[in-house]
């Protein structure tokens, strides 16, 4: 019931369909009760007194009732279908909206396959129940009430005797629901584990094949598949026990009726027509009871699925706008970024960065160097409000970014990450992703700056070439250049290059950096790189080690002092330095010789 209550906002908006569908079903059910009465009339008032002149009128009445009932059933199906689909539609959209607002912290743990199954199979179960299951349960209750009243009017003592097995039926049905609900919950979870395995396998197919781990993957899949199968078998076993008990109880009712009713007819206390009508009416009660299992099944599936969808909808959003959040735009912001005593830990971990102070005036270039895991990307994530800083503060033009509208802040930052994600769309659309209105000239200009134009033009359809999921068919460097073009076109105040040129060769890196110079002009830029060549022109280089700033300054100052920066420089330029030393030694020797 709690699930129904929590989902109310979705189906209540469609209540006109709900009521129309229920009203039509109620009328159809009420009309159904007319059949046994017509049967009684046929036997007691037409056949027994041999008044066959009444048969045509009776036949027309039957046809009319059947036709009208058919129309009502159509109305029920029509509106029920609309209701279910509309509710599923708005739930699907609400879930998708929620997925967009959930913060990175949620996605750190979320499983794609599990989310997919919530948005598909679970929503389908909800659609089924809201559209039809709910009305069917109501119908069942109505049938029992209408049928019971009708039977009581015919012979109340016979009614009570006949319905003696009803408590057994109800008890069995309730026990069934108690057992089948956990089974369904497990089944949904097992299904989601299965989809997660398939999704991860397809996404990571290159890794799987490169490590020749196909058989391991097959085993992993079959373990999960077996778990799903076990759940299904378990549920079938519960069903298998339930049906015979229900059938037995239902048929005992019929037997009691045949015996008791038969005796009453023989004794002349019940007319034959009444007895026949009674026998039809009893199925009005037993039939729905029989279906109780099916309806409970439907309901429990709905409940299990509803819980999973609601869990997603109620998920806490870690990063959200405060009240009266300040909206920033390209025009209102200059791009002065400051990190003030920032310390941050990921959930349940020791601090990833500690006491960070960085002052990046508008238009400056800040370089970041450090071993993997030293906290460089974390600083950028914090700046983009992927996570909220709890200790210390980050300010943009003097405003704490926690007071800014998150989307407007992110619009001012264009990131190029080490890993490039391309959508399965044309290259043009991929480059234009971050902006709403953009011309072809702007797209090409950005591509030229990112040194992507030439290779794009070599592709069969140029800018209209569709790049598949994860940008299949393009090399790592090409993908990265498209990502750079995508960042450039955003015309951001702040540019983040997180190992942005790691996938291109030195020569292309040099060319792209020439493009960056134009791009960086007037923008605050954070460059994370492992190559000194990418950092040497920065206004300030920050060297991080285990989340702490261990060195800072300009390139010339940093290579002049002992420390990790000079060590990295020496390693990267070892060959160059060696050649330079040999060359200068040779020159000195030559000079010496000539003086001699
Ligand atoms: N989403 C996350 N959840 C939990 N811990 C994380 C997460 N991202 C990073 N960390 C941890 O935070 C620390 C800093 O990681 P970060 O990614 O900032 O390092 P980095 O310097 O950018 O490394 P790299 O050069 O390899 O990209 C590491 O110990 C890492 O394990």
UniProtKB/TrEMBL annotation:
InterPro entries: AAA+_ATPase, ABC1_TM_dom, ABC1_TM_sf, ABC_transporter-like_ATP-bd, ABC_transporter-like_CS, P-loop_NTPase, Type_1_exporter
Superkingdom field: Bacteria
Keyword Protein transport: no
Coiled-coil ranges from the UniProt annotation: none
SMART domains assigned to the protein according to its UniProt record, in alphabetical order: AAA
Membrane topology, record value: Multi-pass membrane protein
Keywords tagged on the record: ATP-binding, Membrane, Nucleotide-binding, Transmembrane, Transmembrane helix
Domain ABC transporter intervals: 337-571
Location, primary (coarse class): membrane
Stretches assigned to the ABC transmembrane type-1 domain: 19-301
Alphabetical list of Gene3D superfamilies matching this protein: ABC transporter type 1, transmembrane domain, P-loop containing nucleotide triphosphate hydrolases
Locations listed in the record: Cell membrane
Single annotated GO MF: ATP binding
Keyword check for Membrane: yes
Transmembrane segments: 17-35, 55-79, 125-150, 156-176, 248-266, 272-293
Name of this protein: ATP-binding cassette subfamily B protein
Source organism of the structure: Paenibacillus harenae
